[in-house]
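Fold it.
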Amino acid sequence: MMPKIVIDIQKLSFFYEKGVKILDNINLRIHEKEFLGIVGPNGGGKSTLIKLMGGLISPVKGKIVVLGKSPKTMRTEIGYVPQFSTCEKHFPISVRDMILMGRLGKTSWGGFYRKKDKAMVAKIMEELEISSWKDRPIGMLSGGEFQRVLIARALVCDPKILLLDEPVSSTDPQAEENIFDLLKRLNERVTIIVVSHDIGLISHYVHRVACLNITLVCHKTSQLTDVLLQEIYKTPIRFIQHYQ
């Protein structure tokens, strides 16, 4: 039996006020517990597509359905990890308090954190092996450590879908592999969609690759070739497979 569809995108287009198309006629179905990678050149619409899935912006044409409803309606079921933000990293807050912010959509109406919220934070920190950092200011974290905290913040709402926009862009190669090893484990219970610039790295982990440059074509990782990537990026690209 086929896994159920958790994200269904049909004939979706998006452009800003000046009318320049960012996305054109996107069709994509993502199944439960799939691990999907999104790759493509700068300006190809990758971050825009992730934001549409997360309900942060709305399509101009077409439709997107997440877990049977509109993305905005299902925000509390979606964990979102944005691109690395130096401003956010310098905010004076501890690791534990930053992760706790991920419970805001599921805590009490008054915005007060309950014992359940704090217990969930402790559970996620233990799972991600970052409990010893709980009182550390986030400004003292390395790039890889900070990304793990952002992932923890996204997970603490117990999402069904995890969206990550360039989660390893500010990390060293070892931290990159550590984060993707973590995502592979998380994929046992959560559907994961990740934007990445490192095609070779994600091909070792994802089930499919969505090649996006305004329009979109999906491929199994085994189908990726230098010729295919050159067609997508409009420039010679060498596909390098990472091995562990």
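Residues 236-244 have pLDDT under 50 and may be disordered.
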